[in-house]
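Posting for a labmate who doesn't have an account.
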Amino acid sequence: MTAATPSADHPHDDSATGRPGDGDPTGGDVATAVDALGAGHPPAGDAAAPEGAEAAGATDPADGPEPADAPDPVGAPDPGDARGPADAPVGTGVSSGEGDGVLVLAGTPIGDLADAPPRLAAELERADLIAAEDTRRLRRLTQGLGVHTTGRVVSYFEGNEAARTPELVRELTGGARVLLVTDAGMPSVSDPGYRLVAAAVEVGVRVTAVPGPSAVLTALALSGLPVDRFCFEGFLPRKAGERAGRLREVAAERRTLVYFEAPHRLAAALSAMAEAFGADRRAAVCRELTKTYEEVRRGTLAELAAWAEAGVRGEITVVVTGATEVAEKPDEAELVRRVTAREEAGEHRKAAIAEVAREAGLPKREVFDAVVAAKKKPHTGS
């Protein structure tokens, strides 16, 4: 993945699932065996998704794990842990008899179970230990795939990731084959995994992967925006000030930007993007990817923000086109001159600032601050 940067802010969002839902059904009915994995969210105002429908994709860790996945003390029994008939406790170094341990990162479906990689079932059956972001979702996944696991299953989510990583590394150095799976998509990408991979690499353990579905790449491909160069920004901060600051950092980024967002924060996020990037910047909101109610809504950031005000449900991935090449950034004096010229032509100062900011590709706050600073400077006369 090009320039992928997992967000430290978020791997999990539980707001009506909190991941990439409106529009015409495009994915067809999901097989009965997979209903629990993600038939998805219908458009706002339509009939609700079947009870138990799961979200697919990345989640916002700021919203916390599901209740059953509360952090468990190191060494204490995990309510979500399951044990195969030939399994042993964490820390015993049980292996499949193939020598050195290996860490396997496995991609899981982001909505449609039929998208599961063929190797996923084999790795689930082969693993000595499976670390799962949500053990209940893993159970539904294995049932849907018709897989019987014999290795031990332990939870591995944001709340216990730091504490459990050393345990898993001991298993790996003891020769175990450890499989890491998250709720949907690829581990480490706005999901648990980075700490474990780094720790495994540090001690010389082999790390490999079972590639699988990706909400980032799927959204990019469907967006209709340039995909030759892109960067993944994960989730934006929840607080307005921090979010605005993060967006200002990438306002001049030429590459296409990809974000995950919770449905209840989508309207605010799109409005903030319009403020930082310009209301006319093209974007696409992709929701419920690969699910029954899959939808891709394309338009300017201003148009999309207005649409989202009515409420959006489901898993959300936002793709924003990069900044166009602009002339050298005007200095403060030039910004003030442009605003003053518009005011003298009869334009209201607020509107003048907004238009100058748009033309310069700058946040309105930056132009406003330049105007205020200029007003405070003492005038020198001849």
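Reply:
Got it, the structure tokens are right above this. Residues 1-39, 45-59, 61-99 have pLDDT under 50 and may be disordered.
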